[in-house]
Amino acid sequence: MAGLPPSDIISEDMRVIAVPSESKLRLLNAMEGLPSPYTQLGPHCIASHNAVLSQLPPSLIADIRDFHSNSLAPGALLITGLPLDPDLPLTPANGERSTEKSSLVSEGCLTGIAKLLGEPFSYASEKNGDPIHNVCPVRHRETVQSNESSKVTLGLHVENAYFDKRPDYLALFCLRQDHENNARTSFVDARSALSKMDSMDRAELQKPVFIVPSPQSHHEATGGEKWSTPRPLFENLDDPKLMCHFPGMKATTPKSQEALDKFEETAQDIATHITLQPGSILLLNNQKVAHGRSHFEPRYDGLD
């Protein structure tokens, strides 16, 4: 649990592993000279994946692969002690990729570890198609339900729930905290929440009657808000294939809406809240886990 404040609660829905200091230094050196993932994604991923395989301990690699292959594994895996870029530039004011970032250490850690889980990809309609997104506050976007917000709680959701084909996993790498260290990343495993609900409500949640709005980050490219086709919130307890997006999600029948409200209340009650530390990657199984973020106060001084 290296790097986690004592006040944070670690739940049984998350496992924590730490990178040894000597491995951290070797991985930092191995990330020098990587091709850019923004212009050469394939060669970049091959190089970063080889660096991760060669410099991280085999036991740690096995833990990440177990997170992927073991259906009973917790839905969240926190990896602490990873290297950071030596000269981290100012936080981008527009939420886009920084043009001042000269090294690719954080990108390499993300893609190299992600390759142990699958193939990194992006949506052409989001963030100019960039495979890696900066998550940071943007002025005048403080209260929207997107990763550019700050003064509102970002509701529990799975990444890109609107789409029929969405990521199996999500990787969040903390480079810089908010000034007061108030921001908490929240997550809840659907299996834990659903196990606390009665069978009748679970049956309602398995009906294809739930719709979610398209993400705001896609609206400019897709011509505004759209709604998904009706789908179940989950398919089965062992492999939920969770479709969750709070707020905004709704059911098309009153009885299913009642079950949905109960699920949201249960998920909020049992969610885990952690303070991500610089050098930590949180891996989330996007088919089983919904995530969100608490509000915080931005300063727009380049160090948010």
Automatic annotation (TrEMBL):
Residues 108-298 form the TauD/TfdA-like domain. The keyword Metal-binding applies. GO terms for molecular function: iron ion binding; oxidoreductase activity. InterPro entries: AlphaKG_dependent_hydroxylases, Clavaminate_syn-like, TauD-like_sf, TauD/TfdA-like. The keyword Oxidoreductase applies. One of its GO terms (biological process) is antibiotic biosynthetic process. Keywords: Antibiotic biosynthesis, Iron, Metal-binding, Oxidoreductase. It holds the Pfam family TauD. PANTHER family: GAMMA-BUTYROBETAINE HYDROXYLASE-RELATED, TAUD_TFDA-LIKE DOMAIN-CONTAINING PROTEIN. This is TauD/TfdA-like domain-containing protein.
